[in-house]
Design a protein that fits this description.
Layout: E1 2-8, H1 12-28, E2 37-43, H2 51-59, H3 61-64, E3 82-83
Parallel strand pairs: 1-2, 1-3
Length: 85
Amino acid sequence: MYRIGVLSTTGAEQGNLIWADLRGHLREYGWAEGKNLVIDWRYAEAKYERLPDLAAELVGPRAGRRGSSEGGGRFGPYTNHRGLC
């Protein structure tokens, strides 16, 4: 599964409106969240001092791990995902 990390300065409610187009365009090209794509969302909620920590979460050890059988995430187990830039 491929992985996209999204870091937003807004909150989840505003982010859903802003990123709805991204999801739509991805679907047009055959990418479906939870099917062949994981989107990791991080929201700073206008607390800009949180941005470095949130960015570190997105590119941390989980981003580079492949074939993990770890479960419990928003979309279940990550399998064969790659961190993409």
